[in-house]
Amino acid sequence: MTQALLIVDIQNDYFPGGAMELDGSPQAASQAGRLLRHFRQASKPVVHVQHLSTRPGATFFLPDTKGAEIHPSVAPIGGETVFRKNYPNSFRDTPLLEHLRRSGIDQLVIAGMMTHMCIDTTTRAAADLGFQCSLAHDACATRALSFGGTTVAAAQVHAAFLAALNGAFAKVQSVEQLCASP
Asked: Which end of the chain is more exposed for a tag (fewer CB within 10 A), N or C?
């Protein structure tokens, strides 16, 4: 079994002052950075995914803006793979699947933003493609959502999506637990 870290969309626009600030983004990024250091020290593969908005009317992750840049807490270093995507699913219209298969990777540890969107979609896709997934719950962040006149707090959105993913699509764990695993 070969494991890789997949860091999805930890980008400047999700942080305070950004165009789409998420609840708890600095803390989640700090935890993702800790997981990244763990993978680097173990010489395990790391893949970064960066979202660039190309749809008309997009308000964040606009190409060639500071907001679309990967946050310094998880910035790629030489030799680490970076894929750019234009959809919530990190596998859609990207070479991610081909890269992982060519590299013999069959286990993914996933961290990133937004829990309810790109993390959910990417984790489900990875599981459907046969990858064994672990999801670092404290290295992810999201925001409040509204539907039908009801606003759901970010913490509840986060918990609901993690609960739905846990078991069927991923093993949801803390960064502490993931760093303690061989």
From this structure: C
Please indicate whether residue 179 is annotated as part of the active site.
no
Question: Which candidate in 23, 118, 133, 179 is catalytic?
Answer: 118
With H, G, I as helix, E, B as strand and everything else as coil, classify residue 35.
helix
Structure tokens at 99: 């890269």
Catalytic residue selected from 9, 13, 23, 120: 9
Give me the sign of the Cα torsion angle 85, 70, 35, 135. negative
**What are the C-alpha distances in Å from 3 to residues 6, 17, 67?**
10, 34, 30
Whether 9 is a known active-site residue: answer yes
Instruction: Name the phi and psi angles at 63, rounded to 5.
Output: -55, 145
Burial of 128 (0-12, 13-18, 19+ CB in 10 A): exposed
- Beta 107-113 vs 132-141: how paired, if at all? parallel
Which is catalytic among the residues 23, 44, 66, 85?
85
Tens of pLDDT, residue by residue, the chain (182 residues):
799 999 999 999 999 999 999 999 999 999 999 999 999 999 999 999 999 999 999 999 999 999 999 999 999 999 999 999 999 999 999 999 999 999 999 999 999 999 999 999 999 999 999 999 999 999 999 999 999 999 999 999 999 999 999 999 999 999 999 999 86
